[in-house]
Amino acid sequence: MSSFYAEVLGQNGSYKFFLDNEWRESASGKQLAILNPSTNAPVYSVQACTKAEVDEAFQSAKRAQKTWARTPLWRRAEFLHKVAALMRENAQPIADVLVKEVAKPAVDAYTEVVRSADLISYTAEEGLRYFGEGKLLASDSFPGQDRTKLCMASKVPLGVVLAIPPFNYAINLAVSKIGPALMAGNSVVLKPPTQGSVANLLMVQCFAAAGMPPGLINCVTGRGSEIGDYLTTHPLVNAISFTGGDTGIDIARKAGMVPIQMELGGKDAAIVCADADLAATASHIVKGAFSYSGQRCTAVKLVLVEECIADELVPRVVEGVKRMSVGMPEDNKQITPVISESSANFIEGLVRDAEAKGATLCTGPFRREGNLIWPVVVDNVTPDMRLAWEEPFGPVLPIVRVKDTQEAVEHVNANRLALQGCVFTKDIDRAIAIADAMETGSVQINSAPARGPDHFPFQGFRDSGIGSQGVTNSLAFMCKTKTTVINMPKPSFTMG
Ligand SMILES: NC(=O)C1=CN([C@@H]2O[C@H](COP(=O)(O)OP(=O)(O)OC[C@H]3O[C@@H](n4cnc5c(N)ncnc54)[C@H](OP(=O)(O)O)[C@@H]3O)[C@@H](O)[C@H]2O)C=CC1
Ligand SMILES: O=C(O)[C@H](O)COP(=O)(O)O
After folding, report:
1. 274 and 202 within one domain
2. Is residue 249 part of a domain?
3. For the residues of 183-194, what is the DSSP string, one character each?
4. Where is the active site (predicted)?
5. Which of 78, 252, 329, 478 is the most interior residue, by most CB within 10 Å?
């Protein structure tokens, strides 16, 4: 690894954590092993930070925030542009680490880092406009009021933001929190996913090298199950931005009066109408379901197809899936090992449950070597099967044959998860009617679900989230409104 990262790695081969612009080893003396999903062997290790170090991280972030909030907006933007440039320069080493930590195909890992740099640049520009404007309200628009009060509504920072991203977009979902938080004048305590920690530490080095004031971002490493509660209930937390699974529901319950932004799991369904272009639909479904081996919150995790065309659609999907390459992320295969052995066991359990209850495995017998699972298309899934409702987060695509689109919509709306969905039809009126009836955060018409482009609003309903992301909505989350009212002795009308 280049000298750019010399300070990040300790002499004992373990990666350090970052506090007050210093790379440090934890006083715990304990390191966490990160297993390479492709081999299940340790590949890196990081510090298991102590509660005292978490306290220090928050205290230092609190100090830094006071100064940062007084830093002119254009300087905040200038800083973020420098970070983005450094991330582009260092995209390859960060991507190489992602390949080993989370088994993301090499090209996709690189794309994620570049996309993240672009997100930072966009946030800097959008933030300049967003925070550069406030509102002036006059009292006489309210019934019975004279024009004696002028109200200035401005956007002020929240304070210290706790950012917790998941493994699957460890860099992109870290910067989608950090960028808006910093533009708004907040400081950040970052708790990276354990698998994805080293990539996050290298990313933090890009912030440090861009001239970051001490404490503006502190990055503490450790297992969520060990230090998670301590972090999320810390008295110095002023906001939490979390992306992950159902853990987020527990965090939300405990958060109290702290503003939270939650992006949680999904069970994104593709509704296929009888009049859809089946070749294009099958191609969107295959890509949507199996990119990064289905480990995307926005992956197609269920197909609901009108039964009159199911026998035409399913073979096209299966044909596409059989063409996918399976193997190691370094070789840039499309299907790579899933994140962990326990995840692979969970995915296998869902498939076995469906098989035992009479579903059809269209891609042949279930095949798995370690964490590598060959892609599975499961047809004739029925509502009594777990696959009809649960999120596999793996390369498995369940297909439910429905009598009509009303049954499909009812199925979508009965799930506790409600992130995205999509509908395929040539009839735009029908597409709009179905999209309106689907009670999910987003609906794509004639394409698979996707988060990007990253400035689009992105939100989950029900157990899939609280609040909305996308650059502008995240900027809005990262601030609060403050009003200052000018009271005048008598009504005053401009130019009046
Ligand atoms: N809606 C969306 O935008 C997205 C949702 N997701 C969802 O995320 C899930 C997969 O990601 P995964 O990383 O496995 O999710 P997890 O919920 O397991 O972990 C997410 C993050 O939370 C941390 N964490 C774990 N326990 C706690 C705790 N008690 N308190 C605070 N933090 C904790 C993890 O750290 P550690 O790694 O140390 O356990 C990790 O950094 C899927 O359900 C997926 O759908 C993923 C991407 C986007
Ligand atoms: O959270 C996720 O899984 C990703 O943000 C999905 O992003 P994409 O849909 O643009 O791949």
Report:
1. no
2. yes
3. HTT-EEEE---S
4. 263
5. 478
Torsion on CA atoms 105, 106, 112, 118, rounded to nearest 10: -150
Q: What is the pLDDT of residues 170-209, one digit of tens each?
A: 999 999 999 999 999 999 999 999 999 999 999 999 999 9
DSSP E strands in 212-344: the ranges are 217-219, 239-243, 260-263, 269-272, 302-306
> Are residues 313 and 367 located together in one domain of the fold?
yes
Domain range holding 275?
269-445
Statement to judge: residues 475 and 440 lie in one domain: no
Ligand nearest to the CA of 248: 1
Separation of alpha carbons 65 and 49, rounded Å? 22
Q: Verify cis geometry, omega within 30 degrees of 0, for the bond prior to 453.
A: yes
Which residue in the list 53, 56, 112, 263 is annotated as catalytic? Answer: 263
Q: Are 449 and 288 in contact (CB under 8 A)?
A: yes
Is 0.95 topped by the overall pTM?
Answer: yes
C-beta 221 within 6 A of ligand 2 = no
Distance between CA atoms of 24 and 145, rounded to whole angstroms? 59
Place of tokens 């359990």: 349
Q: Which ligand is nearest to the CA of 115?
A: 2
Return the amino acid letter for 67.
T
Q: What is the separation of C-alpha 422 from the centre of its chain, rounded to a whole number of angstroms?
A: 19
**Which tokens belong to 377?**
């298309």
Position 458 in a domain: no
Q: Given ligand 2 and candidates 298, 300, 338, which is best to mutate, with the most ligand atoms within 8 Å of its CB? A: 298
Q: Are residues 410 and 292 in the same domain?
A: yes
- Split into its structural domains, the chain has a count of 2
Would you say residue 158 lies in a domain? Answer: yes
Residue 1 confidence (pLDDT)? 63
With residue 47 as reference, give the H or E element that holds it. Answer: strand 41-47
CATH of the domain at 78: 3.40.605.10
User: What's 346's domain CATH number?
Assistant: 3.40.309.10
Residue 450, domain member (yes or no): no
343 and 359 housed in the same domain: yes
Buried b (16+ CB within 10 A) or exposed e, 114-144: bbbbbbbbbbbebbbebbeeeeeebbeeeee
